[in-house]
């Protein structure tokens, strides 16, 4: 029983109301024998709030009294997750912003088309500020007509938005216990799924002391929520809503039972961290063969051999290069963790979801390609060749930055694990990624035998340098394509114009360098500043639907996936982004092949495509639930399997045609 119990007088309807309520039907022409959703949309005045199903320490839930035609019934109201408001030490479960309650009308069979369905509901509720409370009453009405059940597109979109605000069923049974005055609730929850700051709202009183702090602990494949129990705990089944840090709400049902206190997860976390560190190390090592990293590494290694530096200087450069790589990976990882702590659903390579960052990277890669082609020379410190510790540090930082669009074998699971580990352990994983990228050059610097095996300096190094400009030009071309997908033709054209301007400035600088002119870098500096300012004006184009070359592929949504799973259909869901090189290689080499299309058609496999190019937060949360920090992610839902199978991050046609 709540601490405040009020009679709601009928005369309240004549008073000034502080909540505007509207009754809306999803279809104005429900079919006989079918159902139709009704929404009660409530908008409180500024400074006022309404109450959830369980109002907490004070308040009254909304009471709906329906007047319906014979045979028509209405289900109980479904509420969105509430917020918390503490006043004078009392915890209230409230809505301080607009909220929508949903119900379902069941229409009996045999009703003739064209028959009228007058619907009326009387709503008694309490609305409050932090100082006063006012009982109010409203009568809402609408008139429906028996028809074909058709739903207008705009009305369906409106109701879909309201449904998304409702808690989603957890799907697994929870257990609760009161022990020595402490309430503990055990909730099945995947160890790799994101959590954030969670809070449990019981649907009835007699379970917890509402204002008491709640402690949420991961304990393997479950969450344990612990708080002070109610003064006079009740028994029996308990339902409620668990809200997560990203705004997701889960409805759950719990049976009384035994809930042991959570075991210490410290050792497990560090064990997972060390495994993730190893995966990140291997993943970073493989990134060195990517076309945007390999030329930088090759020239730096050959430059070290050509310089003839002492053992001491070789080690200094190797350590400086490693420091540049690791610090950039730590900076990107730390920024990613901070964004996620703030509620964002960012993943690895989050910065490439902004076309302005892609534009800056395009200018940088194009400048490196032109340098390798011999258009101009970089002054000390150089990105390749001699340059001492400062040049090596900048080379490492550059290599790490241009490697971020890629997620290869070992990296996906490792970075996904980092997102559920404590901050210190997570940063260890990101440092492992940087160490993996830096490892080849680190070994060259510290192992003289490896340096001796490098080819002797000669004219061939100039030719090799020109050859290595080709993959850098290809990387620039790929970045221009990504920019076109993100910002449209206009954005890509602006970036290409900026790249042309930068190239002209660098060419002019190269001419002045050949002539031995003073301040030879002035033209390039001016051109790069103007080009950078132009790139900064690029904005994303309007959101677009995912497009896939595989016949019959559909854009991914959790609603569509749930519908297909309910039908028992096999589903192949893959998540990609235009800036993800690994994704594009897999799509062209495996997914979009005729053999795969034929196999999927034979077995009636539905393909769902999640395009994460623009950082869709809904996709980000779904990806994170599968222990991944970014794309690619490939999921196979067999027809009768209870959970998806996560496929390797490097695919072949045989991998997909063998799925059953």
The fraction of residues assigned to DSSP E strands is 15-25%
The first-to-last residue Cα distance is 54 Å
Stretches with pLDDT under 50, minimum 5 residues: 1-14, 264-268, 380-386
3D shape? elongated
Mean pLDDT: 82
The biggest beta sheet, please? 8 strands, mixed
Q: How many discrete domains?
A: 4
Q: Mind telling me the C-alpha Rg?
A: 31 Å
Q: Give me the count of strands.
A: 23
- Per DSSP, the total helix count is 16
- What would you call the structural class? alpha+beta
Task: Write the SSE topology.
Elements (H helix, E strand, L loop, with lengths): L18 E7 L9 E10 L5 E7 L6 E5 L5 E2 L8 E5 L2 E6 L3 E8 L9 E13 L4 E13 L7 H12 L3 E2 L4 E6 L2 E7 L10 E4 L12 E4 L3 E7 L9 E6 L5 E8 L9 H21 L7 H14 L3 H31 L13 H18 L15 H16 L7 H8 L4 H24 L1 H6 L6 H56 L6 H14 L18 E2 L2 H9 L4 E6 L4 H11 L2 H9 L3 E6 L5 H8 L8 E5 L7 E2 L6 H5 L3
Parallel strand pairs: 11-18, 12-18, 19-21, 20-21
Antiparallel strand pairs: 1-2, 2-8, 3-7, 4-9, 5-8, 6-7, 9-10, 12-13, 13-16, 14-17, 15-16, 17-18, 20-22, 22-23
Helix pairs in contact: 2-7, 2-8, 3-8, 4-6, 4-8, 5-10, 5-11, 7-8, 10-11
């Amino acid at each position: 029983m709540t601490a405040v119990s009020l009679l709601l007088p009928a005369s309240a309807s004549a008073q000034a109301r502080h909540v505007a309520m509207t009754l809306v039907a999803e279809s104005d022409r429900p079919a006989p024998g079918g159902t139709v959703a009704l929404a009660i949309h409530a908008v409180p005045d500024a400074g006022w709030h309404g109450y959830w199903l369980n109002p907490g320490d004070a308040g009254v839930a909304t009471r709906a009294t329906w007047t319906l035609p014979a045979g028509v019934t209405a289900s109980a109201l479904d509420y969105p997750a509430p917020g918390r408001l503490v006043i004078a030490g009392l915890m209230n479960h409230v809505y301080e912003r607009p909220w929508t309650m949903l119900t379902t009308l069941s229409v009996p069979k045999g009703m003739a088309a064209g028959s009228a369905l007058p619907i009326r509901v009387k709503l008694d509720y309490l609305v409050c500020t932090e100082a006063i409370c006012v009982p109010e009453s409203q009568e809402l009405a609408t008139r429906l007509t028996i028809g074909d059940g058709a739903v207008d597109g705009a009305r369906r979109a409106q109701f879909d938005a309201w449904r998304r605000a409702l808690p989603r069923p957890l799907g697994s049974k929870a257990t609760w216990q009161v022990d020595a005055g402490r309430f503990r609730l055990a909730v099945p929850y995947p160890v790799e799924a994101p959590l954030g700051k969670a809070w449990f709202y019981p649907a009835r009183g007699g379970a917890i002391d509402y204002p008491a702090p709640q402690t949420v602990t991961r304990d393997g494949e479950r969450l344990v929520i612990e708080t002070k129990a109610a003064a006079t705990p009740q028994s029996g089944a308990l339902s409620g809503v668990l809200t997560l840090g990203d705004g997701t709400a889960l409805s759950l049902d719990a049976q009384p039972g035994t809930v042991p206190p959570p075991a210490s997860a410290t050792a497990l976390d560090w064990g997972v961290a060390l495994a993730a560190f190893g995966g990140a190390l291997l993943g970073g090592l493989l990134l060195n063969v990517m076309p945007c990293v390999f030329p930088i590494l090759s020239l730096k290694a050959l430059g070290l051999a050509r310089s003839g530096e002492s053992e001491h200087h070789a080690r200094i450069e190797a350590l400086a290069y490693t420091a540049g790589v690791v610090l950039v990976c730590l900076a990107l990882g730390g920024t990613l963790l901070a964004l996620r702590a703030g509620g964002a659903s960012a993943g690895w390579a989050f910065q490439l979801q902004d076309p302005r960052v892609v534009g800056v990277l395009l200018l940088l890669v194009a400048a490196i390609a032109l340098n390798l082609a011999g258009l101009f020379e970089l002054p000390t410190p150089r990105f390749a060749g001699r340059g001492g510790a400062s040049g090596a540090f900048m080379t490492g930082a550059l290599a790490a930055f241009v490697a971020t669009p890629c997620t290869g074998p070992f990296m996906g699971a490792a970075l996904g694990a980092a997102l559920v580990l404590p901050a210190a352990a997570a940063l260890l994983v990101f440092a492992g990624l940087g160490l993996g990228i830096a490892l080849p050059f680190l070994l060259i610097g510290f192992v003289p035998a490896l340096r001796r095996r490098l080819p002797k300096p000669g004219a061939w190094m100039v030719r090799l340098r020109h050859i290595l400009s080709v993959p850098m030009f290809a990387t620039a071309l790929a970045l221009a394509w990504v920019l076109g997908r993100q910002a449209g033709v206009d954005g890509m054209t602006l970036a290409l114009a900026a790249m042309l301007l930068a190239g002209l400035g660098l060419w002019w600088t190269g001419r002045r360098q050949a002539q031995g002119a003073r301040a030879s870098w002035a033209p390039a500096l001016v051109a790069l500043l103007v080009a950078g300012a132009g790139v900064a004006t690029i904005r994303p184009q309007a959101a677009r639907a995912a497009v896939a070359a595989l016949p019959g592929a559909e854009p991914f949504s959790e609603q569509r996936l749930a519908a297909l799973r309910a039908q028992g259909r096999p589903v192949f869901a893959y998540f990609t982004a235009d800036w993800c090189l690994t994704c594009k290689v897999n799509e062209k080499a495996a997914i979009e092949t005729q053999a795969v299309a034929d196999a999927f058609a034979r077995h009636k496999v539905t393909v769902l495509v999640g395009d994460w190019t623009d950082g869709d937060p809904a996709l980000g949360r779904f990806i994170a639930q599968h222990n991944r920090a970014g794309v690619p992610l490939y999921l196979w839902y067999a027809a009768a399997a209870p959970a998806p199978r996560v496929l390797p991050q490097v695919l072949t046609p045989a991998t997909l045609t063998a799925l059953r």
